[in-house]
């Protein structure tokens, strides 16, 4: 626990959490509420881009569902894989990390992922919004779709796996602070999300790495599962944490995962803008700027928000 948190009485600590959450959302809210027709933009966007939103929901559904299946196979007592890996915590996390990383790669480079940009994470969407690569209305729908997909995945895991998913050794694949406490979990989530966003933006900014960004992201997440899980459960993704929390009816420290990752993603985008203001990103597709299904940078026949800046 960080020493300064000991100065806060319990009530003030709760207030501190919600003030921090408001600070995280303030940049997005400040830009959207200035637009008197924002509701109209929301309605128009959902009519035009609903398929992108469904893709985002499906992407995070697959991500959480595969994570839950793998964690259950690795941790549930009596499963063949759990018996083979018993007593080897690092190997257990390595198996989960491998599946998580490969799942991310599949999502990013699938035709559907290329269509929406495969954000699959509110923290990533907030970062691309700050960079001007997705309109505010579309960003809102992306986040809502990501939340919906994660909630459905949590319920689907309950339906399919039942008591296996609820077993204490699996524990609904909840992301919870480790033995070092909430403050360490917050710092860890902020750090790993900031690094992830920075690596992603730099890869998309570097021509020879643009089409490898999804592979870099998958490898980084696999490494995070192995190294960072003991500190915060390795979320990086507010929607993913919410999906597990609702399935478990356990919301302890959920605010950590809804504040630290979006704040880190936004800050990484701000710093990227300061460093590369003269050479912005060409799009927000993690698969690379030339991989969008049915889009072309040289024509104006397709102006879908994941590939084009705010008008």
TrEMBL record:
<dbReference type="GO" id="GO:0015250">
    <property type="term" value="F:water channel activity"/>
</dbReference>
<feature type="transmembrane region" description="Helical">
    <location>
        <begin position="181"/>
        <end position="203"/>
    </location>
</feature>
<dbReference type="InterPro" id="IPR000425">
    <property type="entry name" value="MIP"/>
</dbReference>
<dbReference type="InterPro" id="IPR034294">
    <property type="entry name" value="Aquaporin_transptr"/>
</dbReference>
<dbReference type="Pfam" id="PF00230">
    <property type="entry name" value="MIP"/>
</dbReference>
<feature type="transmembrane region" description="Helical">
    <location>
        <begin position="254"/>
        <end position="276"/>
    </location>
</feature>
<keyword id="KW-0812">Transmembrane</keyword>
<feature type="transmembrane region" description="Helical">
    <location>
        <begin position="139"/>
        <end position="161"/>
    </location>
</feature>
<feature type="region of interest" description="Disordered">
    <location>
        <begin position="285"/>
        <end position="311"/>
    </location>
</feature>
<dbReference type="GO" id="GO:0005886">
    <property type="term" value="C:plasma membrane"/>
</dbReference>
<feature type="transmembrane region" description="Helical">
    <location>
        <begin position="53"/>
        <end position="74"/>
    </location>
</feature>
<dbReference type="InterPro" id="IPR023271">
    <property type="entry name" value="Aquaporin-like"/>
</dbReference>
<feature type="compositionally biased region" description="Low complexity">
    <location>
        <begin position="285"/>
        <end position="303"/>
    </location>
</feature>
<keyword id="KW-0813">Transport</keyword>
<protein>
    <recommendedName>
        <fullName>Aquaporin</fullName>
    </recommendedName>
</protein>
<keyword id="KW-0472">Membrane</keyword>
<feature type="transmembrane region" description="Helical">
    <location>
        <begin position="15"/>
        <end position="33"/>
    </location>
</feature>
<keyword id="KW-1003">Cell membrane</keyword>
<dbReference type="InterPro" id="IPR022357">
    <property type="entry name" value="MIP_CS"/>
</dbReference>
<comment type="similarity">
    <text>Belongs to the MIP/aquaporin (TC 1.A.8) family.</text>
</comment>
<feature type="transmembrane region" description="Helical">
    <location>
        <begin position="215"/>
        <end position="234"/>
    </location>
</feature>
<feature type="transmembrane region" description="Helical">
    <location>
        <begin position="94"/>
        <end position="112"/>
    </location>
</feature>
<keyword id="KW-1133">Transmembrane helix</keyword>
